[in-house]
Design brief:
Elements: E1 4-10, H1 14-25, E2 31-33, E3 55-56, E4 66-67, H2 68-81, E5 85-87, E6 91-95, E7 101-105, E8 110-118, E9 122-124, H3 130-137, E10 142-143, H4 146-149, E11 159-163, H5 167-176, E12 182-186, H6 196-204, E13 208-211, E14 214-220, E15 227-232, E16 238-241, E17 245-248, E18 252-254, E19 286-288, H7 300-319
Parallel strand pairs: 1-2, 1-8, 2-5, 8-19, 10-17, 11-12, 11-17, 12-13
Antiparallel strand pairs: 3-4, 6-7, 7-8, 9-18, 14-15, 15-16
This protein binds NADP nicotinamide-adenine-dinucleotide phosphate.
The site of NADP nicotinamide-adenine-dinucleotide phosphate has 16 residues, from α5.
């Protein structure tokens, strides 16, 4: 078994790296589990959701924008400059019943820590089409975050499609109506699950149109999206819709399965429940930051802010001995 770490951080998105920067500067010598390399299946996507983001234009301090991977590389470099150590493994299970806390790695090793910061994020759900993922990775006009990408020049005054019928889909569609020439909402049923107020906003918008009972069965275009192939869920009929952007808003899945049996309290949607303001979970010494504990904002800047809080909370906790 390993020596006892002061603080282990699980996850390497904006929340994890910011927690590491603050913890390292507080002389806690944090150890970050970044997840296994991208080529292998991993619980945590190393670098987090920003690794799937091309241009980040809304993070303060980067007036010209920065790519998601470049931004995460800079966060890591800054964390390592102050003594952060990293391991390219997942944490697969946790025993928080006694101190020091025990965490099992994907290599079967047990590591010990006096405090743990969970920053494993949440993954956007995708439809699961090959061309959807190809164009999402290459920045070819497929995105899972309208707030992040919707204002990019490529989408301005263009026809766009949003998939989904929940609050996120309608909120994203409503946001996109400010930039797009037309926003199509593609929904697989004939009624929305979103709140009535959100629905009304869409119905009242002059450049939003709902396509009921439709699913996207393919994404068209080589380097950039030129359209989507739709299938009617009632008649089975296929049709093409010309759009220059596709925003998938069919929910998120928080990365919390490895916490099963750990005693960390989750909410109904499996996000970590934070009983009070700040980063403290229901277990003393276990903290959470970023999208894994935030189903509402889900932004790099809000995740980074939560990472800062978690490191300060962990430092206070450890100093109380
Ligand atoms: P959600 O409520 O789970 O809605 C997901 C939507 O995607 C549903 O309409 C679902 O269709 C559709 N969907 C799921 N899988 C699909 C697939 N494979 N293909 C096509 N469509 C698919 O998720 P969400 O909208 O992200 O919201 C999550 C939670 O956050 C909700 O509680 C929501 O109220 C809340 N939220 C609140 C606000 C706000 O208050 N401003 C904003 C955003 C989110 P079906 O309806 O047919 O199942």
């Amino acid at each position: 078994m390993s020596e006892i770490e002061k603080v282990i951080i699980i996850g390497s998105g904006p929340a994890g790296w910011t927690a590491a920067i603050y913890a390292a500067r507080a002389d806690l010598s944090p150890l970050v589990f970044v997840g296994v390399p991208k080529t292998q299946p991993s619980i945590v996507l190393p670098g987090g959701q920003l690794m799937l983001t091309t241009e980040v234009e809304n993070y303060p301090g980067f007036p010209e924008g920065i790519t998601g991977p470049d931004m995460m590389a800079a966060f890591q470099k800054q964390a390592e400059r102050f003594g952060t150590r990293t391991r390219g493994e997942d944490i697969v299970s946790c025993d928080f019943s006694a101190k020091p806390f025990k965490l099992e790695t994907s290599k079967g090793e047990t590591v010990l820590a006096n405090a743990v910061i969970i920053a494993t994020g949440a993954t956007a759900n995708w439809i699961g089409l090959d061309n959807e993922m190809r164009l999402a990775r290459s920045g070819g006009g497929v995105s899972a975050c309208a707030v992040c990408d919707g204002a990019l020049p490529a989408f301005r005054d263009q026809p766009l499609a949003v998939v989904g019928g929940g609050d996120s889909a309608l909120e994203e569609a409503s946001y996109l109506t400010k930039f797009a020439s037309k926003v199509y909402i593609v929904h697989r049923r004939d009624e929305f699950r979103a709140s009535k107020a959100m629905q009304q906003r869409i119905f009242d918008s002059p450049n939003a149109e709902v396509l009921w009972n439709k699913v996207v069965v393919d994404v068209l275009g080589e380097d950039t999206i030129s359209g989507v192939l739709l299938k009617d869920t009632v008649t089975g009929e296929e049709s093409t819709l010309d759009v220059r952007g596709l925003f998938v808003a069919i929910g998120h899945t928080p990365t919390t399965s490895f916490l099963e049996g750990s005693g960390v309290q989750l909410d109904d949607a499996k996000y970590i429940h934070l009983p009070s303001r700040g980063s403290k979970t229901n277990i003393e010494g276990i903290f959470a930051a970023g999208d894994v504990a935030d189903s509402v904002y889900r932004q790099a800047i809000s995740a980074a802010g939560m990472g800062c809080q978690a490191a300060i909370d962990a430092e206070h906790y450890l100093s109380q001995g």
